[in-house]
Amino acid sequence: MVDFLIVGAGFSGCVLAHQIATKLNRKVLIIEKRSHIGGNAYDYYDDHGILIHKYGPHIFHTNSKKVFDFLSKFTEWSYYQHEVLAHVDGRKVPIPINLDTIKELYGLQLSENEMQEFYQSVREPIHNITNSEEVILSKVGLELYNKFYKNYTKKQWDLWPSELDASVCARIPVRTNRDRRYFSDKYQVMPKHGYTKMFLKMIDHPNIGILLQTDYQQIQQIIPHKYVIYTGPIDYFFNYKYGKLPYRSLNFHFETKDQERWQDAAVINYPNDYDYTRVTEFKYLTSQSHQKTTIVYEYPTNNGDPYYPIPKKDNMELYQMYKQEAEKLKNVWFLGRLGTYKYYNMDQVVAQALTLFERELQNL
């Protein structure tokens, strides 16, 4: 008999397991279908001894002191501010677009005020924005949209930006200064010894058990429990009774190079060339010292593990049907990217889990 059955050993599940075990002194069993903890943030040392992220680069950034302080209980940090280049017109230029991007592409030496005027001169005034294409056109105009966003979005989602909800590209910043950082959050760090070590410390408690390579559907009737916290795909929980929710997935191709550095930045985007969207070199992220380096190519696909909920109107309507089913259940909570069919950053998932604990679980 356990008090809480937690389905999924990613951020949501591990954060809540820790809170329940330590603050409520209740018994928790984590069920995980994969062979490891950590969800998509799982990292490990490859055959060459290089620390890599199995499911593509995970860069931690947050403005939330609460989230940062919570995770700091389980890891030391390496300070890391992420920079990305985009391969455009045969050059590697900064993305998000900034003063240096415009200088590289057009030979223009602009001030910050002149950069604002430049955007104003090229942007398309769209008053009622309904999709991602309109978001970008209203920020940077048609030419930059074509160079950086149109084909990258098509590769990533297999949909044109005009077919995607405005929320997808609303996240994309554009700059009027020389700031080359991809993120502008207050806290930009990486777990000093990797995400997996952080998760191991988080769930190292006598009240927490874990079953790996285990399907929740196969054991839910076998193991007595009072409460369920479900972070897997919500449609699977309900046996796809209304149909499958669509996701985009990724295929990863790893290569190890016999040299210390391979490319000019941690991540290089390829919006217009090749079938892959980007190439990541992990040693930039991890600050590891090694005579070799490992890179990964990302190929978006419709088949494979569910990574990205696809924000289209009909998909959201399908999710609402499952959400209504979920709201009828007692003592079952759905959260995380898969449980709520919403794209979250890592810090947002942690915040969601901490909030759920404070509002609903700690008084059970």
Automatic annotation (TrEMBL):
Domain of life: Bacteria
Entry keyword Flavoprotein: yes
Domain (UDP-galactopyranose mutase C-terminal): residue spans on this chain: 147-343
InterPro entries (UniProt xref): UDP-GALP_mutase (IPR004379), UDP-GalPyranose_mutase_C (IPR015899)
Coiled coil stretches, renumbered: none
Required cofactor(s): FAD
A single cellular component GO annotation: cytosol
Any matching Pfam family: NAD_binding_8
Family: Belongs to the UDP-galactopyranose/dTDP-fucopyranose mutase family.
Protein's name according to its UniProt entry: UDP-galactopyranose mutase
UniProt organism field: Anaerobacillus arseniciselenatis
